[in-house]
User: What shape does this take?
Amino acid sequence: MKKEKLAVVAVSGGMDSCVTAAIANLKYRLALIHINYGQRTETRELKAFNDVADFYKVEKKLVIDFGHFTKIGGSSLTDKSIEVAKADLTNKEIPSSYVPFRNANILSACVSWAEVIGASAVFIGAVYEDASGYPDCRPQFFKAFEKMVNLGTKPATKIKIKTPIIHYSKSKIVKEGIELKAPLHLTWSCYQNEDEACGVCDSCAFRLRGFQQAGVEDPIVYKVKPKYL
Assistant: This one.
């Protein structure tokens, strides 16, 4: 069946955004966007983005450089003087990996492109499970952002902000990805390594726990693979 609607999907190269692209692909033609923001694993994440885009045979793709995040600092992902903390899955405080207001910056670029190319939706792979640390992963943030989009774009522009996995656990994301035949083997989630995933940063830990709870072997290579069950 021919897909009439076009959607912009923010794809970091990680598991969550890959599964989000797979969900969007069910009903929409895909336009994938990736943001380089000076993160430690920028090169590896860009490769993952391009690999995912190739997997879905996406013709419309856009890569944007946000150099201002390294100038602003304040995150262990963009400031190498701040150490990437080891995983603490019980932590309820904002972690050092939080990039201040990153999702608002990413969504702004997505909406700008969506308006130009006539997309009716913007998909982002935010997960509420991360919201205890990342305030810009909360459902109410995205609802408020959509209202702002409606106020700040042309009257004829109607863009929905879609967060299809926001209430998923990591294990459910893994299972959904497998069911949709998403290329999880092409994705990259590690915060600090570009050759072998470290296995001990928050992002690796959340991902590994998701695979372990789903009873599935994670297809990417890790330096160490602790049990997070």
Observations:
- The longest strand covers residues 29-36.
- Helices lie at 15-24, 42-55, 68-72, 102-117, 139-152, 170-179, 202-214.
